[in-house]
UniProtKB/TrEMBL annotation:
Main location: membrane
GO cellular component, one term: cell outer membrane
Signal peptide: 1-23
Official protein name in the record: Outer membrane lipoprotein Blc
Taxonomic lineage: Bacteria, Pseudomonadati, Pseudomonadota, Alphaproteobacteria, Rhodobacterales
Subunit structure, interactors included: Homodimer.
Domain Lipocalin/cytosolic fatty-acid binding: residue ranges: 41-184
Keyword Lipoprotein: yes
Species in which this protein is naturally found: Salinihabitans flavidus
Highest taxon of the lineage: Bacteria
């Protein structure tokens, strides 16, 4: 994807995250109250996460081997670097850089247009629904149900860890039959 394609995808991702995308698909029953891990500590959450599963979103279409890297900034916010391989684990690498902010315990917002972060509609919800005690598996969602992920510190997780994460999504109203398992390199 060329520079213009990346910018268009990035703009679309921001609008989708912000919940303002017209006709955006929801993967959850929004009448089910959403719960977050309000004991989330940011420092142990930082670092690399592998995308184990996601609900389909057009801005990640064709992405495999997806990772997200989070690092602390001096201003208290978090730098975000999302990386995907297009089409195959040895495919071309695409990245998107953004910034996140904590808005409440377990609730973050992310923008991929930080130069315009003063515009409130450019921030999308990124709620940590659950993270294991050892910070090795995390479940992410958004109140509108348009996005959701299972992340892990390693590219592969045991089936029981996957099922436990999927149970968190189900308890939060998500239709886990629509989850896409993301191909990742083996450890």
């Amino acid at each position: 994807m060329g520079r213009g394609g990346r910018l268009a995808a990035l703009a679309g991702a921001v609008l989708s995250l912000a919940g303002g995308a017209v006709g955006a698909e929801s993967y959850r029953d929004t009448s089910v109250p959403m719960t977050v891990d309000d004991s989330l500590q940011i420092e142990p959450y930082l670092g690399r996460w592998y995308e184990i599963a996601r609900f389909p979103v057009w801005f990640e279409e064709g992405c495999v081997g997806v990772t997200a890297d989070y690092s602390a900034r001096p201003d208290g916010r978090i730098d975000v670097l999302n990386t995907c391989r297009e089409g195959a684990l040895d495919g071309p690498v695409e990245t998107a850089s953004g910034v996140a902010r904590v808005v409440a315990p377990g609730k973050l917002q992310v923008t991929f247009l930080p130069r315009f972060s003063w515009l409130p509609f450019l921030w999308g919800d990124y709620w940590v629904l659950d993270v294991t005690d050892d910070y090795t598996v995390a479940v992410i969602g958004a109140p509108d149900g348009g996005t959701g992920w299972i992340l892990a510190r390693s590219p592969q997780i045991p089936d029981e860890d996957f099922e436990a994460a999927a149970d968190v999504l189900r308890r939060n109203g998500y239709d886990t039959a629509r989850l896409f398992r993301v191909p990742q390199d083996k450890d």
